[in-house]
Amino acid sequence: MKGHRFAKSPLFYWVAVAAILCAGAGCSAPDDDERARFGIVTGFVLDADNNPIAGAQVRVIDQAPGAQIGTRNYFGERGPFVANARGQFRIEGVQLSPGDQVVLNLEATHPDYLTGFATSVAPVTVQIGDGILIAGERSRDILVQAVETSDVIAVLQRVGSTSVIGHSGGEITAPVPQPSTVTTPPAVITVRVPQGALATAVPVSLTPLTPSALVATTAHLPSTLPTPTMPAVPGRPISVSTDDPIDLAVVTPFSAFDLRVGTSANQSFVFPAGYEPSVLCPLPISLPAGTRVPVMEFVTEPAAPNAFWRFVTDGIVGPNGRVIEFKISRPGIYAAVAELRWSLLAVLNDSERQVQDFNPLTQFPQGYLATSINATLTIQGLNDSDHPAELAFIRSALAAILDDTVHGPIRVVVPPGDRFGIRCTPVKRDIGLRLIVASGEREFTYNGLWRFWRQQQRELPPLQQIPPHLQGHVQGGGVER
Predict the structure, then answer these.
(1) pTM of the full predicted structure?
(2) What stretch of H or E contains 16?
(3) Which domains does the chain have, with CATH numbers?
(4) Which of 148-162, 200-214, 257-271, 404-418 comes out lowest in average pLDDT?
(5) Cα(79)–Cα(400) distance, rounded to whole angstroms?
């Protein structure tokens, strides 16, 4: 009886009419290539030593400093997406519509670390709007094409020293990061806040930044120095996926730091005229006393695409030749810099090392991060015992322009699932470097060898299925892939 009343209802009538019209018009379900798919983005938030940062929060932002494209064609949740105990985060429901290119910019934060920005390797060379992605090159513009994008990495720098400084002034120091193999006492950056610079007592934090840490915190360094009248826009990482020689020039910091007054790097705060703090920064090499070293400030306007490097002053090398001093007018990110000109010779196979394969593991169905193989950069005439600061500077300088590790454990991200693994092939390049200080006033030349790994995704053969009549009668250690 209830079914009879439903058949007489207006709703049933219009549903039936719609079905008849659709059938007459030849309606059909959309093809697979017409349907919107949904992708997943996964990645890791790490510290400078590749340790996971559990609890880090990842958010989708409109545009990261130095990014060319910004978030595009993304209509999902903005976060936060919280990293688990392995530092892994997961963004689900990224709609992949046919013909649309989805790009994400991701910001990673944690109370104990400076804010950082995630990167991934562009799978293809493509122009999107006014920006371009280069295949094999890391970028803050994360192109989401596949159902699973899993090579995303954000590296955060731990906040350095914090001290409460008031109207009477004070001094804050922080050690410069150095490799764990170095046993000599670290150099320190010192900021002296004069009496009257601050009206009330506030927390002041000072975080020294290596060249690679500076890039991770800000944007890529420019290829030319800014001038008092012309700022320099952020550069872009280089790709070493080519076997050809590479020559490039990059501005690189001898010393850099992040100074915060209060809870953030508020660039609208200005110290009173005549009460500017003095900064003493260590140098990785000796320079003649009185040498002038340019100092840059990283500036971000309310619109992130307007981030740029600005010349602010010259630092003066002190009597011992290993410290420069200058004054700053406001909190922010500063770098005392030199020009580096790199020559990376053609790639050669490294026959002394074997290919390393990283395959999926059943205990990590969502993929995993491996750091069990090392890259090395050695420089003729320098060793870690006698020249720790110089070597650390050169290694971090090359890492900064590559957005990757050049000395120490490299990061291998194995994607989720059981279809793909990562093959690492050992290769090497001879390297030449010219370090130019104060527009050619001083110049240093280095030669070395960089041994690293080429990473390539490889499809695995399907797991061999054991016929039912043989199950229980097969010996051995599993299926070789």
Answers:
(1) 0.83
(2) helix 10-24
(3) 37-156 (2.60.40.1120), 161-337 (2.60.220), 343-459 (no CATH)
(4) 257-271
(5) 28
